[in-house]
Write a structure and sequence with these properties.
Helix content: 55-70%
Order of helices and strands: HH
Distance between the termini: 45 Å
Shape: elongated
Length: about 50
């Protein structure tokens, strides 16, 4: 569904901006390591079921 009012400087004209928390989660090495471990465990679980 397209936005009808696309005039410059309207609220609908700008994309959403990530919050400080979202930016932190995207750049945090600790959180990325945790996600890496979780994803690897999911892959290992999937591999064990298939063999």
């Amino acid at each position: 569904m397209a936005v009808k009012n696309r005039e410059p400087y309207q609220q609908a004209y700008y994309p959403p901006v990530p919050t400080r928390f979202t930016k932190y989660m995207r750049t945090s090495v600790i959180w990325q390591f945790v996600r890496f471990i979780v994803i690897n465990l999911k892959i290992l679980k999937l591999m064990r079921r298939s063999h």
